[in-house]
Amino acid sequence: MKRAEVRRDGVVLSCLDGGSGDDVIVLLHGLAGSGQEMVPTAEALLPDHHVIAVDQRGHGHSTRRPQDLSRRAYVEDVVAVVEELAGGGPVTVVGQSMGGHTAMLLAAGHPDLVDRLVMLEAGVGGSDPEDNYPARLGDWFASWPVPFADLRGAAEFLGTTPIARSWLRDLDRRADGLWPRFEPDVMRAAIAAVAESARWDEWQQVKAPTLLVQGQHGTIAAAEVRRMLSLRPDVAHVVIPDAGHDVHLEQRVAFVRALRMFLGR
Length: 265
Description:
GO terms for molecular function: hydrolase activity. By secondary structure, this protein is an alpha/beta fold. It contains eleven helices and ten strands.
C-alpha cells in the first residue's frame, strides 16, 4: 500500500491506499491508533478490493494538532477521502471503536457515500459523566515516559498485547528518541466528543446494510448492543471468540472471515 494525502480545511490526512477496482473499502482505526494497524486487515482484502486505511486527524501521519476535533470534522474528513481517493463512492466503511462511531455518523449523514457499514467494537457514543473516561484516557496517555530511548524501553512500558505491539511498530523516530504518533490532550478532546452524547437518532437513520462485530471480551455494554439491535433488527451481529476490544489485532483471521462473509452477501 502506498501513502496518499488528502488536504481539507487546513488539515493533511494521510492514507494508505492499495488495490484497485470499484469495490472500495475505507478502514478507520480507533482512538490513538493509525491506518498502519489496519494494514493486516487491508492485506487480507487485497487484491480483490480497493482499500484505503485513513490516519484520522490527530493520528498517525496526519496533522498532529488540528484545531477542530469535533465529530463533524472527523466525518467530513472521510467525505473528502472518499471524494478524492474513491471517486466519490459509494464505499464500504469499516471502523473500529471511535472509527466505528465516525463510520456510523458518515453513513447516517451521507447515505449516498456508504453502501455498507461495519462497526467493530463500536457503539452510539455517550457516557456517564461521573465515569469521565476521556480524562482517564488522556491522563494515561500523558503518563507515557516519552521519549522512549529505544524499542526495548518502550516495550517494557507498553507491554506485549496486540495493541501495544501495534503502537511499538508505529513509533515516530526522532533525534531524541521514540514518540507516539499522537498527543495525549488531542486524544482526550477527540474521545470527549464521542462521549458527549449518545447518537441514537443517527443510528436509526442509517440505511446501509450494517454488520456489528463484537469481541467476546470487548468493552461495548451488552445493554447498548441489545438496544442497537432492537432498533434495527436487520443488522447482522457477530461475536468473535477470545477477543477483546482490538478484535482486528487479536483475532484477525476470524474478523476477516466475518467481514468477507458480510461483503459477499
